[in-house]
Amino acid sequence: VTSVIVIAILVFANLIAAKHKKRLDLTRDRMFSIDDATRAALKTVNVDVDIFVTYLEDANPYQVDNSLPQAYTILKNVLTEFHHANERIRVKFAENEGDEVVAQIRQHYGGQSSANMVYIVAHRGDPPLKLAVPIMELYQGDPKTGSLRVFFGEARLASAIMQATSDRRHRVYSTAGHNEATVERPDNLSLSLLARALDAWANTDVKTLDLPAAEKIPDDCEVLFIPGIRSDLEPREIAALEAYLQDGGRIFVGLVVDAAPRFCQFLEKWGIRVNNDLVVDPSEGRTRDVLYSR
Questions:
Q1: Phi, psi of 85 (to 5 degrees)
Q2: How far is CA 102 from CA 38, 108, 114, 181, 214, in A?
Q3: Could you read off the pLDDT of 184-223 as tens digits, one per residue?
Q4: d(CA 268, CA 287)
Q5: Are 181 and 215 in contact (CB under 8 A)?
Q6: Is 265 helix (H, G, I), strand (E, B) or coil?
């Protein structure tokens, strides 16, 4: 359950922050500096921020990325510049499992830590607000040749820091009305844990939206979560989703097999094809590692 919640938090945080991404052109001689606008924004941070980075080049022998070392080198320099811009931003790196920094991460994150992650802890309350960003989401490279095409970690991490230290709360709506899981139902422990974790780790409120009764998706909805609907959406609801997405909205969808053909047809219009497939993870080499994906 904990792993699923962490993955979901990363999904929501990335959906919220996606609009703030900016790419850094590696063809210029600015790979080891930060933009003046980034520096100015970081200077406004008025709370202590701890950044912990875990790096293990061969963390996953089944998925080797030869561009990771170069990305990590740039990341170290960018975060060092973050600290120079504002000494309240403190940065520590862990490059082996036994590093004491790993123990500090686990203290903040309930005993959990993963390789090749950036952990951000903003001390703006009790408990502090926490975010986590995989290093692989900060760049694009060729895993085979090791060439690094683009690094956009500066804007992504600066945005995460500003999010973690801001007084502004983010807002996610979770739908109800189609027999899906809801935050309020006491038997939905995982969803309740997710809502509490988003509150503590991502400065995000999760509210319930009765989709059949709603005239539109609320204006303050940054991500709409549709958690496993068990009956199809009506045309009026589809129209509300269409208007929301046309206006730049974002959705995170869970589906129950064959429950919503009309909704699936709508998703295909937006480039999401719902197939009746099997996803097999060969990394463990066991036939039982099969995930059913619809």
A1: -70, -30
A2: 28, 10, 9, 35, 46
A3: 665 556 677 777 777 766 668 889 999 999 999 999 999 9
A4: 31
A5: no
A6: helix
